[in-house]
Specification:
mainly alpha; single chain
Length: 127
């Protein structure tokens, strides 16, 4: 039982994120997205940056935190992708799988109202 709990709580690795990025590229090729187009080049660049990172696990964590400051932001981004790629289900599912990994990384770092209030007070206390 404890092994199952540990597996459920395990954070995604950079290898999992890299594979998810590659899966998005594969679905782009499946749907014949232009390889020199914005979509394909964007995901290719993400793989390149991940592979060049000094600490890939830290790199994906920072990306996740930048992407998803809050749970609401995650849902907003997923809704946007659903509207953009709803007619291309393989692309949509690959992107959602990628962002689920980022979500799992970022969720422990979401901003709360309490944190925002404390930081605001700290910031203004120097006036």
């Amino acid at each position: 039982m404890s092994t199952q709990i540990q597996l459920l709580e395990a954070k995604p690795t950079f290898q999992q994120v890299e594979q998810a990025l590659i899966n998005v590229i594969k679905t782009g090729i499946y749907y014949r997205k232009p390889k020199n187009g914005k979509f394909m080049q964007s995901y290719k660049e993400r793989v390149k940056k991940l592979r060049q990172a000094e600490d890939p696990d830290e790199f994906i964590l920072e990306n996740a935190k930048r992407l998803f400051l809050t749970k609401d932001k995650y849902h907003q981004i997923i809704d946007d992708y659903k509207s953009w790629y709803g007619k291309d289900p393989k692309i949509l599912n690959a992107i959602i799988d990628l962002y689920k990994l980022y979500y799992k990384l970022a969720k422990d770092y979401f901003n709360t109202e309490e944190q925002v209030n404390e930081e605001t007070e700290d910031f203004l206390s120097s006036i």
